[in-house]
UniProtKB/TrEMBL annotation, chains A, B:
Keyword Transmembrane helix: no
Name of the protein in its database record: Phenylacetate--CoA ligase family protein
Superkingdom classification of source: Bacteria
AMP-dependent synthetase/ligase domain mapped to chain residues: 96-253
InterPro entries in the cross-refs: AMP-dep_synth/lig_dom (IPR000873), ANL_N_sf (IPR042099)
Organism annotation: Thermus tengchongensis
Keywords of the record: Ligase
Organism lineage: Bacteria, Thermotogati, Deinococcota, Deinococci, Thermales
């Protein structure tokens, strides 16, 4: 496929859309390429929410609607045109064909109701030539039984539910996971694979964007799906690209939608980019949020990044707080408050590896009060 | 479309299928037409269940699977090929286009999980050029709210849930109903239309067959959907066609499926046929079951037919029993045992009109014991 041609089409649609019209005034779609895409203005979820609050009704040409729970507006609607849906189905099918997924029996345990989740996987896997069974969420024991009775090869669901299916006796040669942190939680994949008896692959997507990155059988990071999106990782402060291997905010241009175009959409998700074979790869997946970044000792700390690390050490991923204090000599002091009875061996080293910061002090507590970050430095 | 050509295709597929192979030995698909279809052998749900119990795994070429609860085997699987699904989507879309359903906003409140219900409506309405929102079942108040906020025109669900949506404040210009007795229950449509503030249309289908009959805006019975099926009404004893206007068993040949061909499938449902404009119409819809037929005073009585009549009079549709006794002079005595405090005026006349039989005696009881029919004549 010609990604540049498709990109121009998406930018052309964006230029006509009220969310972009003003800021794309000087943009000439025919000149936009994968190389200079970074010169276009960024777009935030807040901009979309402001627009949709004023214009809740479906736009002309809308053919499929979903709603996503949104802290900003209750439910946020997403609309695809018939053409968008056709494009997306074929584009994502190509990704599954590359994974060798054709002629398989696939059970989808994401919801098809209200949310886009089930549809995204279903349509593409169907189109790639698989038998798809839209099971919907829940009922781990029934899924285990159906999997056996009808000989299903592939399970599509979030990894924690996959664990339950495995514990109920379900065995699947392949798990296509999504919907929650998976490979960014150390040890999680190994646990799921052991119980399901197969290979588990991660993917990343949102309802606004579709599925934009997925693992290969080599399990070497989340690869940009070239037909679906262009990925960038930017410094959330300077909004410039971070060097490969450095943390930043994942910014996505969806190639699959023109009715609600998503051009340089700031996901707020934390990732590291690498370039391989001309594609962007997220070697550590998506592992935190950028919107609560704090500077500690001159280093950018993304506290949510600690959640999957704690999870990997068997702790409650939400059971922590970062406390920042000023040492007498004026330098920052990083205190980690943990809802735990003891500090698991290796945890501090893992945090230092991930964040580049040494924790100065650990406080073990029974309860936590306040937000993720308590900043007492100023 | 050429229905005869499509019929030949379906019969050709059936001839190759294990369920039909033996009994279709002498059948020459190229000679089968709408006129001589009645010469082919009938097929029962029991035959399919026997086959599927032995062969539960999806057949080659299966691309979409659903399960239906089956008293005979727990869950009965249905399989469609990619081609079947494409054909069905387009065929049913044609039906909705004839209803003027294009460019509308449609909220589907049937389930998409496990069952075929939601899919059947969704795919066709989407293909006909409507915006479809796959809401799924339940949450009447949320549906009322979403209907208002996003300007939905059409609600797709079963009529009793539609009532709840209306009671929660939902207003829809059109209801596409299905899934339970509707227009066969006197007064039900009027009640639903009053509360929803729009027009309500009935449809008939099963998961094995798809949607095979639907109402027109004229509300003059369930019309055979020519692209989807061929309908017949047979005497359940002689298995010969009953004259137009007489009760019998609805037998359906689905034109929409070749992977699990349904040729002259005995639904066990009770209907009356009329011929209009070259199509079969079920003027009273589907209003009972044929499998509990008893002969009373030489007349075929289908006791389940009484359920929608009782419902229309505000009684519990399951709160009755037919008791048959022998009068001293040797003739049959028909006793209706009713779980009610009094006999609603007009009920006996309605029963006589529907069944052609006069109830000799009514017994009002608090509780019912035993089955639908208590036959004490022999």
């Amino acid at each position: 496929m010609d990604r540049n041609a498709r990109l121009k089409e998406v930018v052309r649609a964006a230029k006509e859309h009220p969310v972009y019209r003003e800021k794309f005034k000087e943009v000439h779609p025919e000149e936009v390429t994968l190389e200079n895409l970074g010169e276009l203005p960024l777009t935030t979820r807040e901009e979309w929410v402001a627009y949709l609050k004023e214009n809740p009704r479906p736009p002309a040409g809308a053919s499929l609607m979903h709603l996503t729970p949104s802290p900003l507006m209750g439910w946020m609607p997403e609309y695809l045109s018939q053409e968008d849906l056709r494009y997306q189905t074929e584009a994502l099918a190509e990704h599954y064909r590359r994974l060798g997924l054709t002629g398989k029996r696939v059970l989808v345990a994401f919801s098809y109701h209200v949310f886009a989740g089930g549809w995204l996987f279903h349509q593409a896997l169907w189109r790639a030539g698989n038998l798809v069974f839209p099971h919907g969420p829940g009922e781990a024991a029934r899924i285990a039984e159906i999997g056996q009775a009808y000989g299903f090869d592939v399970l599509v669901t979030n990894p924690s539910f996959a664990l339950k299916v495995g514990q109920a006796g379900g065995r699947f040669a392949l798990l296509l996971a999504g919907g929650e942190p998976f490979t960014s939680v150390p040890g999680f994949r190994e646990k799921v694979e052991a119980v399901l008896g197969g290979v588990a692959l991660d993917a990343y997507g949102t309802s606004e964007l579709g599925i934009v990155a997925g693992e290969r059988l080599e399990k070497d990071g989340l690869w940009e799906i070239p037909e679906m999106a262009v990925l960038e990782v930017l410094d959330p402060e300077t909004l410039k690209p971070v060097p490969d291997g450095e943390k930043g905010e994942l910014v996505v241009t969806a190639l699959s939608r023109t009715l609600m175009p998503m051009v340089r959409f700031r996901t707020g998700d934390l990732a590291i980019a690498e370039r391989r074979e001309g594609l962007t790869v997220l070697p550590r997946g998506v592992f935190g949020r950028t919107d609560q970044m704090v500077k500690v000792k001159g280093v950018k700390l993304y506290p949510t990044e600690l959640a999957p690390i704690l999870g990997g050490f068997g702790l409650d991923p939400k059971g922590f707080q970062v406390v920042l204090e000023r040492k007498l000599e004026g330098t920052d002091k990083l205190v980690l408050r943990l809802k735990a009875e003891k500090v698991p061996p290796g945890l501090m080293e893992a945090i230092q590896r991930a964040t580049g910061l040494k924790v100065d002090e650990v406080e073990l507590v029974g309860e936590l009060e306040g937000g993720l970050v308590v900043d007492r430095r100023f």
